[in-house]
Amino acid sequence: MRPNMNRKILLLLLAALPATALAQHHHEAHAPAAADAAPAAAQPAEGQRWATDANLREGMGRIRSTVDELRHHEMGHMGDERAALLATGITRDIGWIVANCELAPEADAALHPIIGRLAADASALKANPGDTTPIASMRDALADYARLFDDPGNAAASGD
Questions:
Q1: What is the pLDDT of residues 73-109, one digit of tens each?
Q2: pTM higher than 0.70, yes or no?
Q3: Whole-number Å distance between alpha carbons of 57 and 55
C-alpha cells in the first residue's frame, strides 16, 4: 500500500468515519459508471489467491482473533463495553495494516472492500454494541479475505 500515500490517507480517514458515512462512500466510490464497468474488487487468476506480506498477515490475524472473541458477545457472554473496546481495536488494526502492508496494486485494490467493510462493521458495533449484527458481517469479510488472499493463518483459523 505504500506506493500510493493518498490512498493510505483516505483509508485511514474512512476507518474513522461512522459506519453510515463509510457505507455511503463505499457504495458511491465503487458504483459502476456504466453497465460494462469492471468489478469493484480485483480478482486473482482462477484457482489463485493474492500474495500477502507479513504485515498484512499479522494485522488480519489480530482482526481474526478479535472477531473470534466477539462470538462471546453474540452469545450474551460479553458486555457491551468490552465489545465496543474490541471494535476500537479492529479499527486500530485496520489503520496499522494500511500504514504498514505493501501489496501489488491489484491485491491492494482487492483488499480495500474487505477492510472497508471491516471498518464499517467495527464502527457500527462501537456505536451500538447492543446490536451484534455487524459481527456476522465481519466474519463474512474475513471469509472473503480467506478466499482472495494467500494467508496461512486462514487455514489455522478455520481448522483446515
A1: 999 999 999 999 999 999 999 999 999 999 999 999 9
A2: yes
A3: 5
The DSSP code sequence of the chain is -TT-HHHHHHHHHHHHS-HHHHHHHHHHHHS-SSTTPPPSS--PSTT--B---HHHHHHHHHHHHHHHHTHHHHTT-S-HHHHHHHHHHHHHHHHHHHHH----HHHHHHHHHHHHHHHHHHHHHHH-TT--HHHHHHHHHHHHHHHHB--HHHHHHHT-
User: Which residue from 116, 118, 109, 107 is spatially nearest to 49, judged by alpha carbons?
Assistant: 107
| Number of other residues whose CB lies within 10 A of the CB of residue 133 | 11
Set of cell numbers at residue 93: 488494526
Neighbour count for residue 156 (Cβ, 10 Å): 11
Q: What is the pLDDT of residues 37-52, one digit of tens each?
A: 334 567 777 778 999 9
